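Researcher: Please predict.
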Amino acid sequence: VQLQASGGGLVQRGGSLRLSCTASGFTFDEYTIGWFRQVPGKEREGVLCTSSVDDITYSADSVKGRFTISRDNAKNTVYLQMNSLNPEDTAVYYCNAAFLSAGYWGQGTQVTVSS
């Protein structure tokens, strides 16, 4: 089982990034996929989650109107489009796959937003 997150980097305030999470080793289209983020010293927090049928199951208030999540089951990939980024969005972003009692985490990708 593998979740590979990519697309992070350094961007200026107001910029955009698109993260990708590509999965292998399990039946991807059965799983709810979520993006989470974490900064040092704080708990990991949910950002956006999409169900197996691409319904939004969770959206953090802090990203509403700026971030969107989408999935391509044919490619076993979920995307996080992040627009209007601000320094408070700086974190390591992780993807998670969950179905019933099973759950997997990716390795994380760093997003840094400069002011």
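Model: The chain has a mean pLDDT of 95.
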